[in-house]
């Protein structure tokens, strides 16, 4: 029996050493991502806002205070047990109450709570002070991307969707980075990051259009839930130029892991240049909803819209993936009544799978009438779908009413 246990122990030791080596090798395959996760990270992210600095200070203050209380209490307890043990002749005291003890163990915890509450309350109040913001951005969570609308300040009127970069999603679908391949921002790279100026107070208004999401950027010290039908807000003032990463930290569905956040903090001059470029793009995309588009125009525009918004789930070949239904050969897409597909795109749809779990198709009403018309035309006339049907922006405009 001892021999068996010895062999088992040796086997476990070898397995542990092998696992440790693999973990160490894997950890060495990537390096720290500035503004994002770090290899073998044990502490909070390096702060780049005053709020994040205060949170880090509170973290260590509370930890040290609680550790000191723990050591003091257990030191007294163990000393008392050892010093007054029965084996050296001590007998337990016999008393029912002590006014002094009652006063001490009431006042001391009260003082400790006050010491902890005062700095914590100060930080919490500061976290909710969203007044006098230089820039206001509405953040909308949706399955599974973020929508950013610049509501007030320089850049007012800019709006776009931010989703996981297509190359990163394809890399994940293929099983992740290959052996020896380094992808420093794996599953954190987005197609359109939020851009803000340095040293400016940015107010974020959060909401959602489907399920509860949560917007969090550790380096900024912000975390705010985005709840459908509700408006919440938070703020930050980044004091250092750079790229900062976060994630949706609410379990929002099966694609939860593919909902990163990327905020690019730039100088005031670079921010003005970015705003000017975005305004030019918006002007170029400002389509006349009454324009009648040709099939070629709709197909070309729809291909871009599909690649940016639909391909991540339905796949570039339209075959779907897992519980995601295919668009190639779909009865809804092929139906002569374009209103069916329009209703799904504008309002979303939930289908209960055989295992009882819901399969959610999010609403896409945030896209323009031209974009929805183009992507519908593209799906109706691509792959094996050869319906010859065209959808014009005016059709979408009518369906919204």
How would you characterize the overall build of this protein?
- It is a single chain.
- The chain is of the alpha+beta class and 401 residues long.
- 42% of the residues lie in helices and 17% in strands.
- It is built from 11 helices and 12 strands.
- The protein has helices at residues 2-28, 50-83, 99-127, 166-173, 268-285, 295-309, 311-314, 331-334, 338-347, 369-380, 393-400, and strands at residues 135-142, 145-152, 159-162, 194-197, 202-208, 213-217, 222-226, 232-236, 242-248, 260-266, 349-352, 358-361.
- The strands form 3 sheets. A 5-stranded mixed sheet has the order 3-2-1-5-8, with no helix packed on it. The protein has a 5-stranded mixed sheet with strand order 4-10-9-6-7.
- α2 packs antiparallel against α3, α6 packs across α10 (369-380) and α10 (369-380) crosses α11 (393-400).
- The longest helix is centred in the first third of the chain and has 34 residues, at 50-83.
